Amino acid sequence: MQQETGQQTSGNARSSTLQRRSAARTAVVWDALRDVLATATSERVLHVLDVGGGTGGFAVLVAGLGHRVTVVDPSPDALAILARRAEESGVADRVTGLQGDLASLPALLGDGDAGRPVDAVLCHGVLEIVDDPATALAGLAAVLRPGGTLSLLVNQRHAAVLTRAMAGHFVQARALLDDPTGGAGHAGSGRRFTADELAGLLVGAGFTPDAMHAVRVFADLVPSSLVDLEPGAAGALVELERAVSTRPEYLPLATQVHVLARRH
Q1: Domain at 2-155+193-263, CATH class
Q2: Where in the chain are the domains?
Q3: pTM assigned to the model
Q4: Within the chain, what is the greatest distance between any pair of CA atoms?
């Protein structure tokens, strides 16, 4: 019995630690999204598409604001977790999970109410693994209504170069310096973008970038022991991430770049 209690306590502690680290990594993105979607809530319910939304980390929050969310993800296991999470959060009637990927959007959204242009698209951690980012963005523009919002989150190349160099992987760092795929020869290995490259791709696909945020500037560099053991450190880290997120000088240091863009 004591062993079970100890295991449960240990499990709760690990869960709490993961939640604190996750908050530091997602707070900036959610703050920006919430401001956009909360403003729209007073006018009408939006149809939000979450491409690669997985287990619903953002989808359930968006549904909690009163919007309808369609999550498209290739993993049936992730979609099962999404359904359970939506049910537990009381938003199951506003969340729909569809198995597929970015390439299958026209087929998935082609009929009925789902076939209408959506009001907002979330595309977080997906552009890195597609074969052609420009084509992928054009596909997102095709399902988004004019004036609709795209929330795009991607891995940022400058920080990846720095991280590899600090770990002693100098050859990998050099390969990533000018090649978004790190010399791997294909996007499937994990493409990375600079802020300027991202802005150019968005404009080329028919979007106007409205805001760009530095995400995870410090969260991936600060030792876990400092965040987990120092009282108040986790909350202070979140506030620091928020404070630097809109300062352009910190974009090159960010693990990820988040962009809010409007479709023309």
Answers
A1: alpha beta
A2: 2-155+193-263, 157-192
A3: 0.89
A4: 62
